[in-house]
Every structure is written in structure tokens, then in C-alpha cells.
What we know:
- The protein contains 15 helices and 15 strands.
- It is an alpha/beta fold.
- The chain has 4 domains: 3-52, no CATH class; 61-90, no CATH class; 100-368, no CATH class; 382-438, no CATH class.
- Helix 10 crosses helix 11 (351-361).
Amino acid sequence: MCTAVGSLAGGAGGTDPARGLEGESGSVGRHPPALGDAWAVAERRVAAPIPVGCYTMPLSPFRRLLLAALLLVIVWTLFGPSGIGEELLSLSLASWLPAPSSPGPPLALPRLLIPNREACGGPGAPPFLLILVCTAPENLQQRNAIRASWGGLREARGLRVQTLFLLGEPNWPQPAWGSHGHDLAWESATQRDILQAAFQDSYRNLTLKTLSGLNWADKHCPLARYILKTDDDVYVNVPELVSELVLRGGRWEQWERVEESQRKAAHEDKTWEGSLALGAKATPLLYLGRVHWRVNPSRLPGGRHHVSEKQWPHTLGPFPPYASGTGYVLSASAVQLVLRVASQAPPLPLEDVFVGVSARRGGLAPTHCVRLAGATHYPLDRCCYGKFLLTSHKLDPWEMQEAWKLVGGSDGERIAPFCSWLQGTLGILRCRVMAWLHS
């Protein structure tokens, strides 16, 4: 609908200018009678309202191009390589969660051949971050590369970090001297970072391996605040990951009194059970990772990721959102939650899906973090590996060492800045574009 403004000569109300100037005497501002009807016609034309909104100025090609570019930037920022839109969308997952399931019976897990019960002990504070690395018995080079790089860190940002390796039994006989079985015993004795359970080590047993590690943390590393599950071909930016967790969980200094009271109670009772397990009172619920959405099970027989109809019926639809198994973080309380309901979850061989299903049954949704790489491999770059990425996938032992050298090793925090001004401004967006071009 068109609107109109009053006369050009009149005010907002469109009053006659002659009357407006006339005053009380009515003598000032009258039109000379000699002008006659011509003056009156002209006056009416001037006083006629001018419609506004009935006419629109057509956009020039330049303005159209500018608006299109602005719209493209907004869409690219939200849903492109920056990952901002992905993180915002993940916040809505909690509203779709079903009611939490009641706890199930205790998990029946294989016994530990190398329990390494004292790995989290020692003087000082308990680990802020416990890193559990899934590895195969034969992957000694990968383990040594991690030990010589990020896995060798015992402290980051003033907080204790502990890295341990999870594995099962080799797929070959072990009686002969010099076999891999004896090598593992020697490796464990010298490195003191091996956890081995009594099951055949294979990709299809990753769920068993991961649950064994989480259960070990529950029993033997009770005050660890966060648990990172990752693989032996993943580079972990430990200092930045610790900073990210501190940022998401609040200032760690606020937890010190809780931790101290737990430590005293545990010392008096000489047990780590009950409410003390995994420092549940000291950390909030967090399930952080590279979230996968609406993934359908693979029905390809013999495939690495095959899931049978019995394991996941088609009536259940796609898997619920879950964090990529290449690297996800569970807070202490989230680990307890997963262990409580895991016995009621479908026996899936895909450990990351299994953890996601268990978390969902417990009322916990994953939180997406674009800095965790998922299955993406990022080319070696000092700025990306030192500042913006928390993990990077598919690194062989040589690349693991090169990445460590690139960021300056354990002295990385004291050398020149990782990024130039432009690199810092582009942030994770630059890293993801590089990965896309590299692939």
C-alpha cells in the first residue's frame, strides 16, 4: 500500500502555507487577487501529496553483485570450512535426546594381561588429561614415534598429562623367544605405558579395546578429569587441547578444592571406588569430537565397517550422532555414564558408533569441535599444527616426527609465533582449505 507525504510547502500535516503565515489578523500571506485562477491551480499542484513506496529504484548490477557476494560470505562462514555452522547445529542435539536409560548390569570385559595399575600414580596432582591410544601389537614404530613427540609430554599449560597405549593379544603364536609377545612384555617393563587385555587384537574388536581402556581409567586413574581416545596414526596437539578443555570446562583452579577433598578421602579410605571414580564431582559432562550425522550402517558382507541386520536393525534408521573415533574427549563423568549403560547398547563392532549410542542412551549428546580433525589428513603446516588443529589423522611415524619438529617440540611455546597475522586471521578456515586442496 502506498503512503503519502504532505505538500512540499506545508508542514507534516499538509497545511496551507498562506494560512500558516496569515496569523491571527488574516492579512499577511494572502495571494494577490490579480493572479486569479492560475495561482490557485499552481498552489494545488504544489500541495498535492507525493506517493512514497509506489516506486522502487532498480538495483544496479554492481549492487546486485555486492549483495550476492555478501550472501555467499555468510553461507560460506556458517557452513563452509570454518565449521562455525557445524558447531552451532550440534548445540541443538541435546533437545532431541530421549529420556536416559536406567543403568545396566556390569560389563563383562576381558581380564588385563598387562594392567599397569600404577601408571597414573606418582607424586603430584593426578592427570588433567589421560590419553588412551589404540594401537596394534606390531605397530612399534608408531608407538615410538608418539613417545618421541607429543606422547612424551607430561605437562601442558601447567597441568599433568598421561599417555597410554591400548592393545590386545597378537594374532600369532607367542612361545618362541623374541616373538612379539615377549617384545610387548619388555616394552611394557621399559616404557611403563602399555595396557594389554586378553582378546584378539583386530579392527572388529575396537569396541572391546576402547571399553577396556575406559574401564581401566575408572578403576586405576580415578581422578583424571578428561579422557582422550585416539589412534596411533593421529597427531595430537596436546597444549592446545588442554587449553580447549580448560576453556570449555571452566577455570581448573576452581576445581582444586574438590580435587583435594577427593584425594584426602581416597587416602583415608584407601580405595578409589564409589563417588570418587574418575573425579565425577569435579568435571561437567562433555562428549567432544568431530560429530558425524545420520550415518547409515554398511551392509556390505566382509567389509571393514559391516554391521549386520541383527546388530542394528533397519527399523532403527541411521546411527545417532557420534564423534569420530580418530579422536574424541570424554569428561570423567561422561566416562562413568557410558560405562553404566554400555551393557544395554547393541554390540556394535564400530567403537565410535558404540560410544555414541551408549552416550545417547545415557542422555548425553556429542558436541562438535571443528578443531578435531576426524578422518581428515592435514598437510604439514606450522600454523595449523601449532595453533589451530587439535588432531590430524593418517600420519606415519616419519610425519609424526616432522610435525613435532615443525612446532618446535617441547619448546614450542617459547619460540616465535606459530602464525603470521594473515594466517591467524584466516584461522582454521585456511587449514581446512589446504586439506581439501591436498586431498
